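Notes, p. 3: input format for complexes.
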Amino acid sequence: MKRSSLEILFVILNVAAFVLIQAAAAPQEKQSPIHIAVATFSHETCTFCPDQTTVADWEYYGPPTRDILRGSSGYIGGFKRMCEEYGGVELVGIISPRDSRGGSSGSWLTQESFDKYSSLIVADLRQAGHLDGVFLALHGAMAVTGIPRPEGELVRRVRAAVGKTPIMVTLDLHANEDQALADQADAVFIIKRYPHYDAGLAGETAARVMIKTIHGRYKPVMAVRKPGIITPSVFQGTGTSPAMQIMERARIWENENPDAYVSVAFGFAYADVPDAGAVVMVVANNDKKLAERIADDMSDFIWRLRKEFAGKILPKTKEGIALAIKAVRDGRRPVVLADHSDRTGGSTYILEELIQQDASNFCITTLRDEKALEAIAGKKAGDAVSLRLGGYSDEFAGNAVPLEAKIDFLGNLGRDPIAVLHFGKNNRVILTPQLMQVTDTRIFDQLGIKLEELDIIVLKSRVHFRRGYADTGIAGAIIEVDAPGWGPADLSTLPYKNIPKNLYPLYRKD
Ligand SMILES: [Zn+2]
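Output follows (510 residues plus zinc ion):
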């Protein structure tokens, strides 16, 4: 049967209406390529440490740079990788400061330095032309004189420059944050592992959600909770419970709800700031109720684990060294001693006690002593030296230790001088001009030290050393030693002024 022209017209109209309805309902795909700006401004501030972090510290390794998209590691590497996988994304490197000298052994950032780099980032974003999104790779534990919540303030300034453009942030698990950051950023993603194996993964997640959001397929909403707990870094390793249980629960929520991103930061207890303590941050796709429900559950769960999380007791110096010597005798070598409380790097309690207890084949990896390095600058390997080492990097750094030693190595590592002194019963101390957290064993090769000769390795690290020593099976035994320092396991010894007055275990006892 032939169709009448009226019927044909009817069909055409129907098809046209269908196409129009589909177009209205479909996500608003942006024209390719989309443009996403990337910037970083990252610091973990030990506000109890003595030396403030200035512009000069920020520019020690060079001036701010736009060249931040190079490399494939970390948050930005992961972000880049996911953007390449999706295709149709052009990343715009925004001028950003490099790492600061001394890293987290640095105290309060000067407001001048914060304003300087925030302004540089904001000005560069304004110059960047059309942007569909802004990705900020931050840390979350920055402390700035006169600015109570620096990451929130940075994002507020960026927001003023880019308007409604989505802004997404990645943070370290040691972040101190609260609602203020979530009020400014569209989405926040935090790593789940300490040691921080998953910075790249957090970057990938941020990129995936950013791209979906730009194309109108995702509408981020956030819920934030503060469980009311503060814990020292040394208890936060995610290779053991309760930190492991907490992150496992976050992953279960994510598995059940593939559109939800469940983050927990355990916080950085050595920054005396008003948003200190653990935080839960949940991102969900246009489902505020779901975000709130997950955030409540995670916060309650962390609160229930508070006693296990905050209450471990660690051996003090004398007891810790005795345990190490016994472990060597038991054949569990090398024994790794984590000198976790030394935040500035020049503390000598463990060196002094090892000598006192007549230990042999140990290596202090490393001791910060820029003055000793200056004193031996003109010498060479093989020379004998008589020095007094360390004990001045902060008021808890202990006594200067007198040492008759031979120089085994004197040279440079990167732009910093480094030396190996050999003394006593085949013992060594590696000297660096600033705190160096050694997280793997490469340094021994670089400095000509045979790892198999070492019975005891002393590291100025809390948990990150586990990456190279525990998770690789190298350490025969690990002993965390609670020597005096600005990074103690017992937080009640710290002179806090600014942290919330409801935190367990400092202000609430049960
Ligand atoms: Zn961290």
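The radius of gyration is 26 Å.
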